[in-house]
Amino acid sequence: MQIKEFLKTIEGLAPNTRSAYEATLWQLHQASKGDEPTPEEIKEFLSRYGTSSIHRHKAAIKNYLEFMGITWPFTRRQFGVSRRRIPRYVNPDLVPSIASAGDEDDYMFVMTLFTLGCRISELMGITREDIREAGVEVTTKGGYYRLKPMARDFASKLRKYAASKDDKPFSGKYSFYYARLKELGKAAGVEKISPHMLRHARAVDLRRKGMSLDLLQQFLGHASITTTAVYLEIEPGELGTELERVEGGENAQPEL
Q1: β-sheet bridge partners, residue 193
Q2: pLDDT tens digits, residue range 216-250?
Q3: Where is the Tyr recombinase domain (predicted)?
Q4: 3-state SS of the chain?
Q5: What is the spatial distance between Cα 146 and Cα 221, in angstroms, rounded to a whole number?
Q6: Would you list the domain boundaries of the chain?
C-alpha cells in the first residue's frame, strides 16, 4: 500500500486525524496478503469494528481508495452498522431563493453564512479586517482563528458590503438572525430552516460537488474526521481534492 505517499497529501489535517488514518491503514496493510487490499479483505477488516469506531476506519480507507483512484466497492448497508442520519439541512439549490426573499442585508447574511459553512456565532464575530481576498478569518467555538476560503467574486462582494457597515457587518443578535431566517424561508416556501441547517446544507453541497471528506473536515473545522464522516452518506459525483475544483471557474479558491 502507498500509505506514506497518501499521508503526504493530507498533511493539513488535524494531527489526531492524520494519526488515526495512518494507524487504520497500517492495520489494514498487515491484514492484507497482497500489495493492495482486496474488497473482501477490506470488508473483513471493517467487520471487526462496532458503531463507535467503524466510521473512523471507513473514512480512512475510503479516502485512501480515492487517492488510489479506486471506487468505493461497498453499499451503504454493509458492515452491520446502523446508519447515522445526515443532520437536517436545507436543499442547497433553494438557498439563493431564500437569500433573495429580503433586502441586501438579508441576502448577505444568508449567503455569507452558507458560503462559509460557518456557525452563526462565527459569522457574528467577523470584522471588516477579517475579510480578505482569499477568504474570511473566523474565530471558532474553541477560540481558534481559521481562514475560511471562498470564491474571490463573493469575497469582493462581501468586502464591498462590509465597507458600508460598522466594524462588524453582522452585529445583530442570534435571536434576530434566527427569526429573520425563518421569515425568509417562509417567504421562499421553506418552512423548516435554522442558521445551522445552512451549515449542513453547505457541507452537503460541497460533498455532492465532489469535495473529499478530509478537505470537507478542514473546511467545516471539525476536530475529528468522525464528525465529518456522517456526510459519507452523500453520494458525490467525481471526487475532487480542493475547493477550486469543486466550485469551478476562474474565481475559485486556492487549495485549503
Answers
A1: none
A2: 888 888 877 777 777 765 544 433 333 444 455 44
A3: 85-244
A4: CCHHHHHHCCCCCCHHHHHHHHHHHHHHHHHCCCCCCCHHHHHHHHCCCCHHHHHHHHHHHHHHHHHHCCCCCCCCCHHHCCCCCCCCCCCHHHHHHHHCCCCHHHHHHHHHHHHHCCCHHHHHCCCHHHECCCEEEEECCCCCEEEEECCHHHHHHHHHHHHCCCCCCCCCCHHHHHHHHHHHHHHCCCCCCCHHHHHHHHHHHHHHHCECHHHHHHHHCCCCHHHHHHHHHCCCCCCECCHHHHHCCCCCCCCC
A5: 8
A6: 2-68, 92-234
pTM assigned to the model: 0.59
Q: CATH assignment of 92-234?
A: 1.10.443.10
214 and 206 Cβ atoms separated by less than 8 Å: no
Grid coordinates representing 165 are: 457597515
Average pLDDT, the chain: 81
Give Cβ neighbours of residue 147 (< 8 Å, ≥ 6 apart).
132, 134, 135, 136, 137
Amino acid letter for position 224: S
